[in-house]
Amino acid sequence: MERIFFVTILLFLLSPVITHGAVTNGGDIRITSEGEVSIKKAKVFQVAGGNFYTRIYWDDVFLRVTVITNKNTKIKKNYGEPATVGEIKEGDILDIEGAFPGSSDSFIITATSIRNISLTKEKLTTSGTVLSVKEESDEFIMKTKKGNTITVTTSGTKILRGIIPISIGEIKAWERVISAEGVYDYANDVLNAEDIQIYQDQSVFLPHNFKGKIKSISGTSLPAQIVVGLTKKDYTVNITNGTKLINKTGSDVSFARILVGDIVRFYGAVRKTDLNQVDDVEIFRDLDL
């Protein structure tokens, strides 16, 4: 049966022991009778190509361990994203799995896997609800579906509501973020977003009735655009030769009789690529005629 034992005094005899202050504590080594090695919290002191000279600390004493990597060594960041040998730097803290390469008078292991605890920025796609927006600093606070609160930075970020590009200033509190993708800093709970998708209620694009006052008319003949002010929003209404123009009793009227200031009702659909435009206007009724 495989025996697992902790290496303490025996391993210290393999390497000089010195006093060292303000370093990572809590290092751990486990070795099986088959020569398999598991190391927790090894600190990198020197990088030599694909190899690393590390130390495992227990308060004021340490053990030197040389770590050898090869093409089969699997390296990942602290939260699981794949990493490379080149991302390991002096001062990084590593968890290492491996084995002794053979007999040696020093502590050397060939690593099969390395987790770099110091690499806490990783690719992440998340979703949630906007809690507040800080337009002046290009960021908003979001509660994710997992329940944690994070800061989402948006400098240079592509933001879409449905298929419409928007700015950070157009995002409102309590809007639903379908997807926010970028590099997440786990240490500070900050997502540097590259792409954000805000939920768009598709029901607003269904054809329906509008009522408001004409603010401006472009042109004297069809096709033409009429800006109509509703209670909370202005729409540019695209009138075509196929639009039926009628008065309040339902009789046909000419386009020339429709004037700025008239109250109108019309039936159409908000454009999916521009929420300020109304297309497919079948009926345009002037209630002042």
Average predicted confidence as pLDDT: 88
Question: Termini, distance in Å?
Answer: 97 Å
Roughly what percent helix?
Answer: under 10%
Annotated CATH topology of the largest domain: OB fold (Dihydrolipoamide Acetyltransferase, E2P)
Uncertain stretches of 5 or more adjacent residues = 1-24
- What form results from the Cα inertia axes? rod-shaped
CATH architecture of the largest domain: Beta Barrel
Total strands: the figure is 21
Structural class by SSE content = mainly beta
Number of separate domains:
3
| Beta-strand percentage range | over 45%
SSE order, one letter for each helix or strand: EHEEEEEEEEEEEEEEEEEEEE
Based on CA atoms alone, the radius of gyration comes out at: 33 Å
Total helix count? 1
What is the CATH C-level name of the largest domain?
A: Mainly Beta
Question: Which helices and strands, and how do they pair?
Answer:
Layout: E1 4-6, H1 9-12, E2 28-32, E3 36-48, E4 51-58, E5 61-68, E6 74-77, E7 93-99, E8 108-116, E9 121-134, E10 139-144, E11 149-153, E12 158-161, E13 164-165, E14 176-185, E15 190-198, E16 208-218, E17 224-229, E18 234-239, E19 244-247, E20 263-271, E21 274-286
Parallel strand pairs: 5-8, 6-8, 11-15, 12-15, 18-21, 19-21
Antiparallel strand pairs: 1-2, 2-3, 3-4, 3-7, 4-5, 7-8, 9-10, 9-14, 10-11, 12-13, 14-15, 16-17, 16-20, 17-18, 20-21
Protein name: DUF5666 domain-containing protein
